[in-house]
Structure formats: C-alpha cells, structure tokens
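ERR on first pass: missing label on line 2. Operator R.T. fixed the label and resubmitted. Corrected input:
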Amino acid sequence: QKEVEQNSGPLSVPEGAIASLNCTYSDRGSQSFFWYRQYSGKSPELIMSIYSNGDKEDGRFTAQLNKASQYVSLLIRDSQPSDSATYLCAVTGNQFYFGTGTSLTVIP
Amino acid sequence: ETGVTQTPRHLVMGMTNKKSLKCEQHLGHNAMYWYKQSAKKPLELMFVYNFKEQTENNSVPSRFSPECPNSSHLFLHLHTLQPEDSALYLCASSQDPRGTNTGELFFGEGSRLTVL
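pass 2 clean. output:
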C-alpha cells in the first residue's frame, strides 16, 4: 500500500472554475500535511501546510484536512492558467512521504 | 529563489565517470536532504543530514555517496552509475529543531542527470 495516494489526472478545469485536488494517506499517526506545486522543469514549491482538522484558507487556496478519514484536499478557486502545474501532496510521520502528484491544466 | 542553490543544473555522464552534485542553502536551516524524482514516481528520499549528521539512508546503492561538511553544504558523489539512475536530483533543506525531519521543505531547482 502506498503511503500517500493521489489521482494522477490529468485534471482539466476552465479558467475561473474551482479545481479540487485530493489525497489520501495510510499512516494514522501522520502529523503534518503539505501541498507543493511543481511547474514543468522546476522544483516543488510549498503552497499550503495544514496541521489540524478543518479548513485553512490562503488567498485562492483552501486546504482541507480530515484525519478520521485520512484525507486531505486542496481547492483552488477562480483557477488561472498560471495554476497549471503538478500538485504534490506530502504527509509527515517519521519522515516526508510524497504522492505521485496530480497534473492540473486550467484552460483559458 | 528559494534560498537553496544546486549545481550543476544539468549533467550528462558515462557509466564509468565520477561526478558530484552540490547543494548550498542560505536559510540557516539545520537539516538537508537529497531526493530523487523519476517520471511517474513519488519523490524518493535518499539521504537526510541533521546538524551535519546523517540520520537517514533509504537503502540507496553505494554508487551514490553523500557528504555534508557543514550545515549549509551538501554533496552527492556519483560513481559508476547506471542508465536507470537518470533522474532529477533535488536538494532540500528545513528547520527541524526536534530532529524529526518533518519541517517544511525548501527545494533547490534540481540537477537533471542523464547517464549514458
């Protein structure tokens, strides 16, 4: 069983729509949860971190965490073409575990 | 600019060559990492150094040899690599006072390695 699972996509949404990215994890003891964005040919950059159940909002981004369901998601409101990238979910137990990433394309 | 600098950005080497990847962080972090990123696979943790001491070695073949002379610099020495070692090698750093290697990671731009 993979530590962190993401739908690889590709996910396509029209400009201005809400993009919803999902991630499940296997270790119930996981403490910290992150979303990284990776543009093609570039390195991952941290866009959101969440540590407790519920929602955390930062601009157009909202991270949602449900530890009981072992589920973390990222919502991107008013999607822009510049949001087109691969989004990596990362979960920490005794080390970082990354998912394979979801490829998002925002269509103008 | 993340504060983590990697060189070279691109490297092509033969299977008998010896080369090194370099990473430098300007963030004052105490932990540094090497990750391997291959197509369609999750990021693979290779090595972790915390306060210059190696704390993780995820069953990495001995043809990869890390070196951490101080908290700001990290090297990955490469020797007799195989074509399947071709990948993007990412260096990262974090501030990790508890020594759990779970602080937020800041990545360098990566070194794209091709083994012929």
